[in-house]
Structure formats: C-alpha cells, structure tokens
Write a structure and sequence with these properties.
The complex is a heterodimer of chains A (560) and B (335). Chain A is mainly α and 560 residues long. Chain A has 16 helices and no strands. Chain B has 335 residues and is an alpha+beta fold. Chain B is built from 8 helices and 13 strands. Chain B has a 6-stranded mixed sheet. Chain B is elongated. The chains are: A mainly alpha (560), B alpha+beta (335). At the A-B interface, helix 3, helix 8, helix 9, helix 10 and helix 11 of A face helix 1, helix 2, helix 3, strand 1 and strand 10 of B.
C-alpha cells in the first residue's frame, strides 16, 4: 500500500539551546521557545534604541530654549521613539513571552504553525531594520508615530523617511497578523486533554483575546499605510486635501487601529499579572470567570472608542457622546481586573520577590494610568488637556508603568524557566527600586506639566513659570530610569552565567510550564501531568487541598 | 460660559502679571479630579492594607484558597457602572450646553475673527462686523487682539497642514485642517495678555507657533483697529536720521522682494504667503514667539532667520549689518 507523504516525518531533533548552540541553530529555528527568546532579544535591542531616543529628548527638554538637538532631529526622535516602543519593543516583547509560554501552558508541543511563527519574527526584525535604515539615508520619518495627514504626505514630508516608515510598519503588520492567527489556532486546537477553556491560565486567555484584536485592528493600519504610501508615491488622493482627499479620514482609519493597539499592549500585561500575583500570594486568582469574561467587553469595545483621540477635530455632538460612553464603558472590565487582583492579594501569604514587587507597582501605576484614561472620556476636559503633557504622563503610566512593568514582573518570574537559572534577587531589588523611582519621577510630574499647559511634541519651550523646573525633574527621572536598565542587563548577564540553578518549579507555581524541566526540552514535556483544575501543579503538590476536590464553594474550578 | 477656560497654573501667572485674573478650575475639572484621586487612593489603601496584613501573618500553612465571591464581583461591576453613568450624564450636559467649539460656523452667526494656521505662524482676518465697522477686513499675524468681556466667535482654517488653536485661559482647543472649517469660542474676562499654543503637531517648527492674545478694553481695541487701517506711508514722530534709515529700509524691502511674501497695509505689497507686517512695531514677539520683540532681537532674526527658527520658509538673505539695521528701522517705523 503506497501512501503519499506530503510532509516528511521529523527524523532528527529540531535545533534547540540544548542540542546545538550555533548561531544557525537559532536563526533557522522553528521552535517556539527559541523564537520566543529571539523575539525578546530583538525587542530588547529595539527597546534600548527607543530608550536612547527618549533620553536624548529628555536632555533637550531639561531646560527652556535648550539647543542640544536641532528641531528636525528632535521630531525624528519622537517619531521613531513612539514607533519603536509600540511596534518594535513592547508589542514584540509581549508576543515573545506568549510565544514561549502559550504552548507550554496548554501542554502543547509547539505552536500550530511553527514556520509561520518564524516568519512573523523575521518580518518584525527586518521591518524594524528597514525603518531604521532611513537614518542611514539621512532622512528619518518625522511626522510622529501617528503620521497624521496632510503633514505625512509628500508635499510636507518630501524625503523618503515616511516611505520607509510606511513600508516598515506594513511588513511588521503582516508579521503581527500571521502571528495572531498562529496563536489563535494554537489555543483553539492544541490544548492538552483536560485543558478546557474554563481551565486555561489567564495569560493564555489574554493572549487569545489580544490575538483577536490584532487580527481585526492591524489590517486597518496596513490598509491605511497602503493608502498613505499610494498618496505619497503614486499620486492618489485619499488624504491630500489639495486634491479633495480628507485628512480626517486618515485619522479615523488610523485611530480605529490605534486605540485597539492600546489593548494589544495592555491585555497580555494583564495576563502576566494574573499569573504572577496568585503564585506569590499562595492563592488562586480571585474571580477567574469575571476576569476572563469581562475581557470580551474590552475586545468588542476597543473598536468603538477611537473617536476619543479626535474630540478636537469637530466630529459633532452625537459622535462625541458615542465615543464618550464607549470610553467610559471600557473602563469597567479593566476596573474589574484591578479589584480582582487586589482581592487575590487579600489574605494571601505574600512573597516579596522582585517579580512580585514589579507586579505590585504595576497595580498602582496602572490604576493611575487607567483613571486618567477615563478622564479623557470627559469631552470638555479632554479639549483642554489633550496634546499636552497630561496625555504623555497618562500613556506612559499605561505603557511603561503598566505593560513594561508587567513584562519585568514576568521576566523575573519566567527567567528560571527560560534559562534554568534564577535571576539575582539582590540586583533585582536594585533594579526594581531604581525603575520605580525613576519612572514615577519622570512621569508623575508630567501630569502637572500638562495642567500647567505645556503642549506635547515641542522640541523646546518658552520660559513659562514652572515649566523649566518640572521638565528638569522629569529629565533627572529619565536618567535614573536609564540607569535601572543597565542594572537589569547586568543582572541578566551575571545570572545567566552563574545564577543559582532553578530546578523545575522554583516558585511553587501552578501552571503547566513549571511541570517540565528548566529550560524545557525541545518537545516541551516528557509527560503532561493530569489537568483536573486550573492549577494542575498545585493539585499535584498539595493533593489534600487540590482544587478539584471542590473544597471551595465558588463556581468554576470545581466544575469539570 | 462654563467649562471653556482653565487656569493652567504657569500660564495664569503670565496673565496675572499683565493684569488678567486667575480663573478658577471649572467644576467638571474639580469633580473628575476628586473622583480620580479618590479611586487611586482607594486602590493604594487596599493594597497597602493587604500587604501589611500579610506581613503580620506568621503561620506556615497555606492561606484559605478562595476562588472568588460572586456577590463581591457583581458589586464591583455595578458600582463603577453607576458612577460612570453619572459622570457620563454630567459630561453630556456639560458638553451640550453653552457655546461649544465644533465643525462649521454656528447657524445664523458670522465669525468675529478668522484664524488661518500656516507653517509656522497665525494669520488673523477680522471681517467687518461686530468687532469693527471698517470698510475692509483687518489682517494681522501671530498676535490676536480682542476686546475683553465679550464672547468672540473664531473661525478656524488651515492653509496646508493641520494645526490646533489653543489659548488655555480663553477657551478650549480645537483643530484646524485644510479644506475644513471649524469654530471656537474665546472669552477674556479681564484685559491682559494670554499665552497660547499650536497643539497639533504641524512640522519642524511646531514648538514656535505660539499665540499671544491681547485682551483690551473697548477703547484700546478701537485704537488698535485704527492703527491697522491707517496708512503706513508716513511714519510719524521719529527722528530724521531714523526716518532716513527707515526709508533706506523701505527701499531694501522692495529690492529684496520681501513683499512677494509679506503684506504691509497702505503699500503696494499685499502678498499673503508670509505674515502681514502691518503695524509691526506693536507686536510684542517675533515670529510666533521665538523671540521677544526688541530691535536687537529683530536684527538677530533678520541676520539669519534659519539660525533662530530653523526650517522656516523665510530664507537667509545673508544681509550686511547695515542692511539689517535699515530693515529694522523700517519695520520699527510701522506703527
């Protein structure tokens, strides 16, 4: 009997950090763990570049009428800082963590489409490099990461920088979309026996929802980029008012992607926090069903709030009200999460590891960022503070105080799994406190700077009473924040070389990734433990208190 | 008017120094700030208590494995919803009443001032109407003059790229787009100087597209109107040697073709590409705030505009110091 074999059976092990350490074994890898780590490495490299750009800007802004940077360069820096941090740093870091952990958490051998996984990584890397190539040709994009038309069309950004920007982002966008498809299919089809939807770790749920948002939001960006590129290169007139195009159309297209993007950067962070807090509280997450279920509201509503970026454009009263109510509504599921996290801590036995400290600081910083976010739903308030440093403070509390802080929490938590070694807690605490103080010093004062009327995206500013002093404080904070990153790098380097061996489950954690060795073998699991509740390892280690006993009356875990 | 203005601390210092009054924060600002701070303090308080409580615990046993509490979870879903509904109603009422900025021009009304955003300066056109009854519109640049104590309807336009017109203490901010008309209401309660800004990124010199609004008494405003329409041909009350230099500057102005961009009322120069220089000596700032207006600063600016405000459309004419002095004398004679 003859059988056509379309895909030949794997005869030898795929490259992994264990089987081979050559560079090629990484570049050619289709292993989700290696790809996940490469995502983290690439994103961290871009993060360093984006951070350097931020530091240069902060130095320029340290004093009124400062002239360290020429205006054109400053505008290029803030354009590339925003673009880099959003598309090349935070988002790929979160995707990288998801890449590494989702298959492990659901007891799978790999993602559904390993080759597509490699494709999305390399599209990210080369898309980012293409964008940065614009610096080498001497014309980096300078129309802002949002690139509002008509400033971004060729009449006003005549160099090639904007074209590099549009093409680079387009390529990254394709990578994100196929990556999202991959994660969705993985989660839907590759769960181990027993891993029902109601038992999935919250990080997996959040990755699933994030991927849904990516799937619907990124095509909107890519379509916008194509139209912008056509306007610039082929004389179309989607956004060029001179030929009847509409600048506001651009904003609607862009922000209908742009606001969902905020949740793309926030939901995986929620997932990380929902894993770290319970483990270091010795309790399960409080209100699993509400935390996971309410996220559906975020997914749906994230597409109905973009107009709150446009209240100064003249959309009309009813459109304003539509987006106002949506913006307020979307804060409810986020509020549910914050309350659930606090309740998870409540009465727990807290272990103040570095991961936990980052997670705790996330809670307070993200609350501040969230609360100022709801304030923008109040139209007359928004029309005063929008495009001032109040917004800069808000968005950094969400992305740095929120997403990046959660990433650090996750990194300290999962580094033992990634490498088999513990990160130094002593250096970790230095890193944490420097980050915490540096971050809040940099950005808390910017709320007041905004309320003192300073607009964003100014390469310099007149000597208005108070502005100079507040900017200087912010700059000092930024220098501390930059220093904290070097403590982190040193910690990773030292711990990777000679950190304490971790063992399989150093934190006494609950989820499946801790059931295998650290780092996991190429095939992830020798044997997947029985999954009879949301916390298979807790059940295994504490059989008398196991979740599946139904010792608690709460719905959810006890149902099988 | 209710929530149009906000104090913006550092800026109100400037206004106060020039005789303006400090505006209190509008009620909706106060309400949402109090709510926001209360929520942050609530979360911080709960967090601190949970941490302290855990530190007091000493026994080794695992804590009670509580998975949730439906009643509590419903409570912290419903309570925020109620709070947000209340805030939304407040927002809707506040946004829907009173003179709001928006698209187009309110029906049956004519704008008092038309503001056109250029890269990187403001053009003001006062059509004959409520503010003045001159036969033609008054054109000026960068410095807005308005009578205090009156609601001013401003028409917002842009020449080529987007801008946003924002004088924090006089009104909300609102965008300007080429091919679109928006409107904004401004009101200065007291005479004084009110700083403002371009608040939508508009290119390389976005930072130096500042606004200076001068609110005046009705009489002063009328004087200003008269100064705009009087002829620039006969510079009065300046010493003869200055007058000679100014005449030299006028000739140079023509020879350098400055008039192909700039307009001066009462002369043959009526171009609109650059800011109007009519009555230039009365402007407190140079080129939308980049420098304070003194003869020395003006000389510095004319010597090389690209060094003072890099990237603007005014080229560096590489003028000799003598030529610069002549131009300064001419511009300062425009009263």
């Amino acid at each position: 009997m003859s059988e056509t074999v379309l895909v030949p059976e794997q005869t030898e092990a795929l490259p992994s950090p264990r089987s081979a350490n050559g560079l090629l074994s990484w570049i050619a890898s289709v292993d989700h763990k290696q790809i996940g780590l490469m995502y983290l490495l690439a994103a961290f490299a871009f993060f360093m570049v984006g951070g350097l750009e931020a530091l240069l800007m902060r130095i320029q802004l340290g004093a009124p009428r400062n002239s360290v940077l020429p205006p054109e360069l400053y505008n290029q820096l803030f354009t590339m800082h925003g673009t880099t941090m959003i598309f090349l740093a935070i988002q790929p870091m979160l995707i990288g963590v998801a890449n590494y952990l989702v298959p492990l958490m659901i007891g799978a051998r790999d993602v559904a489409f390993p080759r597509i996984n490699a494709l999305s990584l390399w599209l990210l890397v080369f898309g980012g490099l293409l964008m940065y190539f614009s610096f080498l040709i001497g014309d980096a994009p300078s129309a802002g990461w949002f690139a509002h038309a008509p400033l971004s069309v060729d009449d006003f950004s005549s160099g090639d920088g904007m074209d590099y920007w549009a093409l680079g982002l387009f390529i990254i966008g394709i990578g994100s979309i196929v990556g999202a498809v991959n994660l969705i299919v993985t989660i839907l089809t590759l769960r181990a026996p027993g891993m029902s939807f109601r038992r999935m770790p919250l990080f997996v749920w959040m990755t699933f929802f994030t991927s849904l948002i990516i799937l619907y939001a990124l095509p909107s960006l890519n379509a916008t980029l194509v139209m912008l590129f056509f306007d610039r290169r082929f004389g179309s007139a989607f956004f060029r008012p001179i030929e009847g195009g509409s600048p506001l159309l651009y904003q609607h297209y862009f922000w209908s992607f742009g606001h969902p993007e905020v949740y793309i950067l926030a939901l995986p962070a929620f997932g990380i926090i929902s894993e770290v807090l319970p483990v270091f509280s010795r309790k399960p997450i409080f209100g699993y069903g509400f935390v996971a279920g309410s996220t559906i509201v975020i997914v749906v509503y994230s597409f109905a709030v973009w107009g709150h970026h446009m209240w100064a454009t003249g959309m009309g009263f009813w459109a304003d009200m539509f987006f106002s109510i949506g913006t307020m509504a979307i804060s409810v599921p986020t509020g549910i999460k914050v309350f659930s996290w606090v309740a998870t801590l409540w009465g727990g036995k807290l272990r103040f590891t570095t991961a936990m400290l980052f997670a705790l600081s996330f809670l307070i910083q993200f609350t501040i960022g969230g609360v100022t976010g709801v304030q923008f739903a109040i139209v007359p308030f928004d029309r005063q503070v929008t495009d001032t440093y109040y917004v800069v403070a808000h968005l950094h509390y969400v992305f740095v105080g929120g997403s990046l802080t959660a990433l650090f929490a996750g990194f300290y938590y999962w580094f033992p799994k990634f490498t088999g070694r513990m990160l130094s807690e002593r250096l970790g605490k230095w890193h944490f406190w420097l980050t915490f103080i540096g971050f809040n010093l940099t950005f808390f004062i910017q709320h007041f700077l905004g309320l003192a009327g300073m607009p964003r995206r100014y390469y310099t500013y007149p000597d208005v009473p108070g502005w100079g002093a507040m900017n200087l404080i912010s700059t000092v904070g930024a220098i501390l924040l930059a220093a904290s990153v070097w403590v982190f790098i040193w910690n990773v380097y030292v711990s990777f070389k000679r950190g304490k061996p971790a063992g399989d489950n150093p934190w006494d954690a609950y989820t499946l990734e801790w059931a295998t060795s650290s780092p996991p073998p190429i095939h992830n699991f020798e044997q997947v433990p029985p999954i009879r509740s949301r916390r298979p390892l807790w059940d295994l280690n504490y059989p008398d208190q196991a979740d599946y006993h139904g010792s608690t009356k709460h719905e959810g875990t006890t149902r099988r | 008017m209710r929530t149009l203005q906000a104090p913006f601390v550092g800026l109100s210092d400037i206004a106060r120094q020039s005789g303006g009054t400090a505006i209190p924060f509008p009620p909706i600002f106060v309400v949402i700030m109090v709510i926001a701070i209360a929520i942050c303090l609530l979360i911080a308080g709960l967090l601190t208590y949970a941490i302290l409580r855990s530190r007091r615990q000493t026994d080794e046993a695992a804590p009670q494995q509580q998975h949730g509490n439906n009643r509590l979870e419903i409570l912290w879903t419903i309570l925020p919803v109620i709070l947000l509904v209340a805030i939304f109603i407040y927002t809707a009422v506040d946004t829907g009443t009173g003179p709001e900025p928006g698209a187009g021009i309110p029906e049956g009304q004519a704008p008092d001032v038309v503001v056109i955003g250029h890269q990187w300066w403001w053009e003001y056109r006062y059509p004959p109407g409520r503010l003045h009854q001159q036969p033609t519109e008054i054109v000026t640049a960068n410095v807005l003059h308005i009578p205090a104590g009156r609601q001013i309807l401003v028409e917002l336009r842009a020449s080529n790229v987007q801008h946003d017109y924002w004088i924090p203490q006089l009104g909300q901010k609102f965008d300007m787009y080429p091919g679109k008309v928006n409107h904004l209401w401004l009101e200065a309660k007291e005479p004084g100087r009110y700083p403002g800004f371009c608040a939508e990124f508009c290119g390389v010199q976005h930072a130096w597209m500042n606004i200076l609004a001068i609110a005046e008494s009705e009489e002063q405003f009328e004087q200003w109107v008269q100064a705009q329409v009087s002829s620039a041909e006969a510079p009065a009350d300046i010493p003869p040697d200055q007058a000679a230099l100014a005449n030299e500057g006028r000739e140079l102005f023509g020879r350098l073709a400055c008039g192909s961009c700039h307009a001066i009322a009462g002369t043959e120069w009526q171009a609109r590409a650059g800011p109007s220089l009519t009555n230039y000596s009365s402007r407190p700032t140079i080129s939308a705030g980049v420098l304070e207006h003194t003869p020395e600063n003006l000389a510095l600016y004319l010597k090389n505009p690209q060094a003072v405000k890099p990237g603007i459309y005014m080229p560096n004419y590489r003028l000799s110091d003598e030529d610069v002095q002549a131009l300064v004398a001419y511009l300062e004679s425009l009263k």
